[in-house]
Amino acid sequence: MSEQVERGRGRGDVDGYEKHGGFPVYRAAEDDGGPDFGRLIEAMRVLQDAAVSVSAPADVVRQAAEQAEALAALLEPHRVPEGQQPGGRSMGLPGRGSLLMLPWTVDKFDATGVRSTGVFRRFHMGGNGAAHGGTLPLLFDDLFGMITHAYGRPISRTAYLHVNYRKITPIDTPLVIEGQVDRVDGRKTFITAKLMDAEGTVLADGEALMLVLLPGQP
Ligand SMILES: CCCCCCCCCCCCCC(=O)SCCNC(=O)CCNC(=O)[C@H](O)C(C)(C)COP(=O)(O)OP(=O)(O)OC[C@H]1O[C@@H](n2cnc3c(N)ncnc32)[C@H](O)[C@@H]1OP(=O)(O)O
């Protein structure tokens, strides 16, 4: 994990960060969920890749379904309230250990911007080897959230998010996304970002308005 990401873990009450909005205070997981949590999440992603790409005999599908049900039953008694689970709060893991987020790695996280690298996987595919169009706004929105956080802005929500799809975004291909705060105007934070391939070709660019939540706003 980079030093910048490490610094982003425990920001304290910078500029009243923890007092804004009705949003609960989130803390990064100290140990990224323990020694095997990242392994579990990666295995789940491999399973998702397999689940959307196999055409297996009925007996294999039945066995897989039974094993998946058994795994869910093993984990079920250990549910905790939002904000206490390592998923989504493990800054040292791809996608912060969330199965929803793209499993990308943050390699720059500071007030000048955030950069993240990774691939769209088979289970992100829309068609003909390209990432599903709906997965790009997810990647951009999460980046915009991190940029807002790294910039030291109080808890904010996305008011709008615009993505321009400039070229096909291929799956299983190393890509980079980077962006920064362009302008701050009161509660408003204006952010832009670009998704590029290894040669620097822009595949998509995006912009967003993040609005600082008012006291009590969810
Ligand atoms: C553990 C550590 C983790 C660290 C990493 C964390 C990463 C996490 C990443 C996760 C990231 C995930 C992030 C997510 O996904 S957040 C989830 C997606 N977003 C939402 O659900 C937001 C839903 N909407 C709302 O809650 C309200 O509408 C908000 C709060 C946004 C504004 O309602 P509010 O009543 O408060 O404000 P207002 O209406 O008086 O407007 C105020 C001003 O703003 C201007 N305006 C408003 N809307 C627009 C618009 N669309 N275009 C242009 N302008 C707009 C408006 O004209 C006005 O301007 P002015 O007249 O003052 O000049």
UniProtKB/TrEMBL annotation:
Query: According to its UniProt record, where is this protein located?
Result: Cell projection, Ruffle membrane; Cytoplasm; Membrane
Q: Which reaction does it catalyse?
A: dodecanoyl-CoA + H2O = dodecanoate + CoA + H(+); decanoyl-CoA + H2O = decanoate + CoA + H(+); octanoyl-CoA + H2O = octanoate + CoA + H(+); (5Z,8Z,11Z,14Z)-eicosatetraenoyl-CoA + H2O = (5Z,8Z,11Z,14Z)-eicosatetraenoate + CoA + H(+)
Entry's EC annotation: 3.1.2.2
Q: How does the record say this protein sits in the membrane?
A: Peripheral membrane protein
- Key words, A-Z: Apoptosis, Cell membrane, Cell projection, Cytoplasm, Fatty acid metabolism, Hydrolase, Lipid metabolism, Membrane, Transit peptide
Q: Which Pfam families match?
A: 4HBT
What the entry lists under SUPFAM superfamilies is as follows: Thioesterase/thiol ester dehydrase-isomerase
User: What would be an example GO MF term here?
Assistant: hydrolase activity
| Domain Thioesterase per the UniProt entry, residue ranges | 128-203
The answer to whether keyword Cell membrane applies is yes
Q: Which InterPro entries match?
A: HotDog_dom_sf, THEM4/THEM5_acyl-CoA_thioest, Thioestr_dom
**PANTHER family in UniProt:** ACYL-COENZYME A THIOESTERASE THEM4
Which family does the record claim for this protein?
A: Belongs to the THEM4/THEM5 thioesterase family.
The protein, known as? Acyl-coenzyme A thioesterase THEM4
Write down the species. Rhodococcus kronopolitis
